[in-house]
Amino acid sequence: MTDITHYTERRDALWKKCSHCDEPVFNQVLKRHFYTCPHCDHYSPMPAEERLFHLFDTEPLMNLYPPLAPESLLESLELMDFVSHTTFPDELGQLIAAGDGTISGHPAILAVVHPYSVPQRGHFVTLLTCIRASLQKNLPLITVYPSDGLAKRKSDEPKQSELTPAEITHLKIELDGLSQARLPQITALTDIGVTGGFSTRFPLGDLVVSEQKKVVHRGDGIPNLSDSPQSDVLIDLNTQRQELPTLLGKLLAFFADKQTVGRKATTHEIHSNS
Ligand SMILES: [Zn+2]
How far is the CA of 28 from the centre of ligand 1 (A)? Predict the structure, then answer.
């Protein structure tokens, strides 16, 4: 290897061009700004594992990604059959990152789907693990889904069989179990697709939050309740990326209130509570 190719490789590993404004951004700077461009505020897709650490207060107490989750837990959740019949990519966070931890001091189960990953079997098994762990531990479930549109890059052909309608139905039925147990389910949608809206094949929680660069504020600074016109899902609340952990913390605090636990909140109630 010549010095020049070595230099070029090193340089390319250090920075990349923003896909929106074309300005070069150092990877470390991008990371420090939660994958938001310091020049134009464009949101780059955030790797699943990094988002998990961004949302959790500290490292997750327990990793719920099946190959890394304790075998005793998977056995108690009756998931050993699923795990043994599923292959998982070697690299962590290639499909989904999931854990059991606290967000702004409130315990929750969190599952983050990796941007660009086509919904597939690894997601199904991990989400199933999270839903059952949520039920067993009596904890709220938070799911983070990037828009499906992102996954349509040719380089991201699924390595496993794609999520089937039967698997989606299975997840919905298991989620109904959480509703019956009055456990809050919150979904955060990230990374607006090329159509300018949010879309996902994964089943949504009772409350849906979207992460968007431009948030319409009312005079009092509270995010406006609005639907993204081109989204095929109904959004309850909008927030900016940097504020997502705080918003989730507020929602968890709201649901943790004994009088309101398990009851589907109206956005009015959440606003007056925050
Ligand atoms: Zn930019």
Answer: 15
